[in-house]
Design brief:
Layout: H1 2-18, H2 21-49, H3 59-67, H4 72-96, H5 106-132, H6 141-153, H7 158-181, H8 196-230, H9 239-246, H10 253-276
Helix pairs in contact: 2-3, 2-4, 2-10, 4-5, 6-7, 7-8, 8-10, 9-10
Length: 279
């Protein structure tokens, strides 16, 4: 009986620690780091839309741009450490659950696990870039996507795996966009701490930014499905080529301008989340 009570008490203390000031600070640092990346990617995409085709509108391009700024090395390391904080926050959600009534449900823990794995990869890539000062051999997101698709297609049932992954990305993009338009993020924000004007501004960035982010995910998923159907890895596109594809539509560069501006707004929204999100 005593042992059971001690174990229960230990779990409660661990849960409190996971939601304590250290993890909260890590979460807010991670959200701010995400905001920096989206701001830079959106800005690079805007440059492409207005004729600067030499830019690379993805995470690698954003890091290269940041490395050229004063104190670029310090900024890169700070960004990487912030993303490590994001990964630690998602790990705590995976182990102990997140805020909200269903925060400890299996679905929420599974989402937290996927996000933890994703941010571990992103943090590692940023810290590797910082350590090598841009001489990392990871290549562009487009090359990485095509190489991964080629390896997957060579596996047994590879076409089905790539196709299923592409459909999952399309579904994720739709889920992200719909939740943004429905303002589901309100459930996670401390709305009472915002003035009415601030809340309106946050809604502009959250809806427009989330919709643009979801659209980019969905289109990237469509390209993955095409690569599977045609058995052509080069049809898969990373973030850079996905964004450039918007300029090839009948609307010309203006659709890319809208999407790029949306990504900039999502970066601003990430800063708002870093300030007002319940962790």
């Amino acid at each position: 009986m005593d042992m059971s009570a001690m174990a229960q008490g230990g779990r409660i203390r661990a849960r409190r620690a996971a939601r304590g000031s250290v993890v909260e600070g890590a979460a807010r640092a991670g959200l701010a780091a995400r905001g920096v990346i989206y701001l830079l990617v959106g800005a690079l995409a805007l440059q492409i839309a207005f004729g600067d085709k030499g830019e690379q509108a993805d995470r690698g391009g954003a890091l290269a741009e940041l490395s050229q700024k004063p104190f670029g090395a310090v900024l890169l390391w700070a960004l990487g450490i912030g993303l490590v904080g994001m990964a630690l926050w998602r790990l705590s959600e995976m182990l102990f659950g997140s805020v909200g009534q269903d925060g400890r449900s299996a679905r929420k823990r599974l989402l937290a696990t996927a996000r933890f794995a994703f941010y571990v990869f992103v943090a590692y890539s940023v810290l590797s870039f910082a350590a090598n000062r841009g001489r990392s051999g990871s290549g562009s997101s487009d090359r990485q996507s095509q190489d991964a698709t080629a390896r997957a297609l060579e596996m047994p049932a590879g076409q089905w795996l790539v196709g299923a992954a592409g459909l999952a990305i399309v579904a994720a993009g739709g889920w992200i966009g719909v939740r943004a338009v429905l303002r589901k993020y309100h459930d996670k924000l401390r709305l009472g701490q915002m003035s009415p004007r601030t809340r309106r501004l946050v809604d502009v960035t959250g809806v427009a930014g989330g919709a643009a982010r979801g659209l980019v995910f969905a289109v990237a998923g469509v390209f993955a499905v095409r690569a599977a159907v045609d058995y052509e890895p080069d049809r898969a596109k990373g973030l850079d080529d996905t964004l450039r594809s918007f300029a090839d539509t009948p609307l010309g560069p203006w659709l890319l301008v809208c999407v790029a501006a949306g990504l900039v707004l999502f970066g601003v929204f990430s800063f708002a989340m870093a300030r007002w999100r319940r962790v």
